[in-house]
Design brief:
Layout: H1 3-6, H2 10-19, H3 23-40, H4 51-63, H5 68-84, E1 117-120, H6 121-149, H7 158-182, E2 184-187, E3 204-209, E4 215-221, E5 232-234, H8 238-243, E6 251-256, E7 259-269
Parallel strand pairs: 1-2, 4-5
Antiparallel strand pairs: 3-4, 3-7, 6-7
Helix pairs in contact: 2-3, 3-5, 6-7
Length: 270
């Protein structure tokens, strides 16, 4: 590998990658690639990135409640490019994997102890409605069990076994959601027009990245209501922790390996 390739920076590699894309493709991927580069620093040598650092970026995505798998794929495409084009000796893309357990539901708390959960009234009502839907599906599964049990040959009764597994699955989900509702703390939603001097749970905010000028739209919610596709991030995510309690116009900082990312809270609304 030549010295010029060995000395290529993350910023230079990203610009080469994006320059080879169509305008449509570039519009979809540029923002996420630039976030990755800012995380480690524009001037960071590509050759200095280690496998553990790349692996840890997956954890960073999860904690910031972004569209986890989609974002991983976008960054992975960039890293695969660096290997294909000879910009990197290592296959960095192979180290960017989803963390185990990140896509699984959290386990049900042990009996006698419940984890307090913050929910908006809308979030509480949605969970309650989900429980009713699951109960209806459970009733249907029980009917299917009765129907399948009419076949006296239980040794190879696949429909009966499938119905039992469906019932058990649904009962587990119902119990889990019921435990969440029992431990829920309802967030009081503010009336429209009521001043919001500081960011709180349930608020919608607009952040501006002071380095790129990019606008980010989020709603701050409890961990159980996180919905990346709708911009709902947890109050315990890095960005969530940085903005909670801060006023409109305030500049906040999020610590990253390259230093700090700075965002201004441009708007707070309910």
């Amino acid at each position: 590998m030549s010295d010029s390739i060995q000395d290529i920076t993350l910023g230079e590699a990203a610009n080469r990658f994006l320059a080879g894309l169509s305008a449509e493709e570039r519009g979809q991927i540029q923002s996420e690639v630039y976030k990755f580069v800012r995380w480690y620093g524009w001037g960071r040598l590509l050759s200095s990135l280690s496998a553990p650092e790349i692996a840890n970026y997956a954890e960073r995505l999860s904690l910031s409640d972004t569209e986890y798998m989609k974002k991983l794929e976008l960054v992975r495409a960039f890293l695969a490019y660096t290997k294909k084009e000879g910009l990197s000796q290592n296959s960095l893309a192979t180290h960017l994997k989803a963390k185990k357990g990140k896509t699984k539901l959290q386990s049900i708390p042990k009996q006698g102890w419940r984890e307090s959960t913050s929910l908006t009234q809308k979030g509480y009502s949605k969970l309650a409605a989900d429980i009713e839907v699951l109960k209806n599906r459970r009733s249907q599964a029980i009917k299917e069990m009765s129907k399948a049990a009419a076949d006296k040959d239980f040794r190879e009764n696949a429909p009966l076994q499938a119905a039992k597994e469906e019932r058990d699955h649904l009962e587990g989900r119902i119990r889990g959601l019921e435990e969440i509702l029992k431990a829920a703390v309802i967030i009081k939603e503010k009336e429209e027009g009521e001043p919001t001097p500081r960011v709180n749970l349930g608020d919608r905010i607009v952040l501006r990245d002071l380095a790129s000028g990019e606008e980010l739209h989020y709603m701050i919610v409890g961990a159980r209501e996180v919905d990346p596709a709708k911009g709902k991030i947890s109050n315990v995510s890095p960005i969530g922790k940085a903005v909670i309690g801060q006023a409109q116009g305030k500049v906040v900082e999020v610590v990253v390996p390259a230093g700090k990312l700075r965002y201004q809270i441009d708007k707070i609304e309910h």
